[in-house]
Amino acid sequence: MKKHRCGWCEGDDLYEAYHDQEWGVPVYDDDTLFEFLILETFQAGLSWITILRKRENFRAAFDNFDYKKIANYKQDKIDTLLLDAGIIRNKLKVNATVTNAQNFMKIQEEFGSFSKYIWEFVNGKPIKNNLKNYKNAPATTNISDALSKDLKKRGFKFVGPTVVYAHMQATGMVNDHEAECFRYKEV
């Protein structure tokens, strides 16, 4: 019997694997939260499948998403990234990644971890929605608006409410799997 999946991922093996193994699983690890933050930043204005297909290129280009290294990138490294055809070569997004890494560490210093900071916006536990169809998922919520505003106040770039809500979905802060999806109850 075929598993019922959220409609957005069906028909592409990479999308289905991401959906089945990662999307919506609560993430409390700062390294993984930062990886998703980078990927969501680059996804702004593009499709998620485009980013997934380039994920390993991003991993190689950005030192395995090591925010401590990224925070210290100099102009020569940024110039090299802008020549890398394996990633999205957007100067504003590359520069934002460096800035966001620096601000990520400031949040860690203030709160003990980025995870503690971000999960407070949902009182430490995932919000479980009850969607019949993925198309009914909101693009933003009051929580993503508040989180976006706070991140921007802290100097983050490319963290509008839609990007932030996508990050919340990806990292399991909100469960937007369709109620009939086999992953809905699992996560």
From TrEMBL:
Positions with a binding annotation for Zn(2+): 6, 19, 177, 181
What does the record give under GO molecular function?
DNA-3-methyladenine glycosylase activity; metal ion binding
On the tree of life, the source organism's domain of life is Bacteria
For this protein, the Enzyme Commission number is: 3.2.2.20
SUPFAM superfamilies with a match to the protein in the record: DNA-glycosylase (SSF48150)
Q: Name one Pfam family in it.
A: Adenine_glyco
Catalytic activity, reaction form: Hydrolysis of alkylated DNA, releasing 3-methyladenine
Could you tell me which InterPro entries the record lists for this protein?
Adenine_glyco, DNA-3mA_glycosylase, DNA_glycosylase, Tag
Is Ubl conjugation found in the keyword set?
no
Q: Which UniProt keywords apply?
A: DNA damage, DNA repair, Hydrolase, Metal-binding, Zinc
Output one GO BP term.
base-excision repair
**Enzymatic class:** hydrolase
NCBIfam families cross-referenced by the UniProt entry = tag (TIGR00624)
**Record's function text:** Hydrolysis of the deoxyribose N-glycosidic bond to excise 3-methyladenine from the damaged DNA polymer formed by alkylation lesions.
Q: What is this protein called?
A: DNA-3-methyladenine glycosylase I
Source species: Flaviramulus basaltis
